[in-house]
Amino acid sequence: MNSRPVLASLIATLAATSFLLAAEPDLHRGKPDIWGVWLGTGGYPDIDPRYRNTPWPTVEFTAWGAAESKRLTTPETPDECMPYGPHAYMAGGSLFPFEIVKAAKGLVLLYEPSPVPRRIYYDGRKHPEDLDPTWLGHSVGRWDGETLVVDTVGTNGRGRPLNGYVAAAVNSKTDNAPRLPVSDRLHMVERIRLVGRGEYLEDEITIDDPKTYTRSFTVKHYWQRRPDLEVLEYFCDDNRRPEAEGHTGSKP
Amino acid sequence: MKDLRRLLFLAVAVMMLGAGSAWAHHSFAMFDLEKEVTLEGVVKEFPWANPHVWLQILTPDGKGGTTEWSLEMGAPGMLTRTGWKSSMLKQGDKVTVVINPLKSGAPSGRLVRVTLPNGRVMGPGGPPPPPKPGA
Q: How many CB atoms lie within 10 A of CB B92?
């Protein structure tokens, strides 16, 4: 049997495969291992202080921002089953984990309680100029050494505030912090990196929203690596009991 | 010791839910979080669904009939990560529950803890226990 055709076909296959690989470079090769399941440290009082979320800052509202913050301390809050905005998505709570998944064009974040995955592209693209508003906006990233820098615009401004969904007035006697909303003018910049020998993820979030605040501010939120957990299914509309749950005033 | 630690952990979780966390699905302000009521009843339903699991139990109303109580718990994921399985309760099971009752007086409340027929005490769901050191 002549082995030449087989050899030729093998070489052709290898050539085609390497061409395909070259056409689809692995954006994740050599990048920090941020993949997997993470849980916010916010609910653990005993967490190492180095990985504790920074307190909510004292902010200066615009007139619109002050009114919106006040509105969110009444039952006129966003519907609790609506998606999160990118700021609240990354607020570091401990009740639900999120998962960072490798995608062809960047990464996908799956945060259990939010019905919409968050996509961060880092294939070199820019924000489109004619962006339509969405709950999570449009996020593009780039690796700055070991840090993923993410730029987000294009939010619809309809989500819950940075510091919680529920209004202070109806939620707790002790939580009187002003709600920190964001608008459709949000420009959010994040610096995401591994800390604590790779066991924690830090997200330094700068909120620049001239419709809501007179100046930008920065908070840091932390997650702990939790390979023992899984992100589970969460379909919020399944078994809602708004009367019993006491939030009949919330609006979509 | 392990159970005690779990109970302590759940107590912290409960406090956080009451304190208005940044991530709670909704308010718990309609429940009287400073008042605890103990009820003995029979499970009618245990719908395992988001946004929150509810435990429906029937208690004697003192007039020969029953009262149905709706007891709110955490999300299914929160229950799973604190040791729950949906099969732990089924229709007809006798349970003892401790609840924060609804302020309005209606037969509803937030579940604080439930004693299962096998004697195991379970909480309402919350953040998962911290990872074991060295795990």
A: 10
Tell me the chain B residues in contact with residue A164 when contact means C-beta distances shorter than 8 Å: 20-24
According to DSSP, the β-strands at A138-144 and A118-121 are parallel
Other Cβ atoms within 10 Å of A31 Cβ, number: 15
The dihedral over CA atoms of A146, A33, A54, A153, expressed in degrees to the nearest 10, equals 70
**DSSP H/E element including B28:** none
Better pLDDT: A169 or A44: A44
Chain B CB contacts of A37 below 8 Å? none
pLDDT digits over A49-59, tens only?
A: 999 999 889 99
Instruction: Summarize the confidence of residues A197-226 as an average pLDDT.
Output: 97
ipTM score of the complex? Answer: 0.81
C-alpha B108/C-alpha A2 separation (Å) is 82
Chain A residues touching residue B70 (CB < 8 angstroms): 241, 244
CA distance B64 to chain A (A): 26
Whether residues A241 and B54 touch (CB distance < 8 A) is answered with: yes
| Residue A6 backbone dihedrals phi, psi, to 5 degrees | -65, -45
**CA distance, residue A213 to nearest chain B CA (Å):** 20
* Cα gap B12→A173, rounded to integer Å: 17
Closest by Cα among A186, A182, A142 to A161: A182
Residues 6+ apart with CB under 8 A from A190: A90, A148, A149, A150, A152, A203, A204, A205, A206
Q: Which amino acid is at B110?
A: R
Q: Which of A38, A82, A84, A95 to substitute to test the interface with B, most B CBs within 10 Å?
A: A95
- DSSP letters spanning B98-121: EEEEBTT-SSEEEEEEEE-TTS-E
Residue B64 DSSP one-character state: S
Tell me the residue length of chain B: 135
Instruction: Round to whole Å and give the CA distance between A39 and A132.
Output: 31
Tell me how far apart the alpha carbons of residues B22 and A69 are, in angstroms, rounded to a whole number. 15
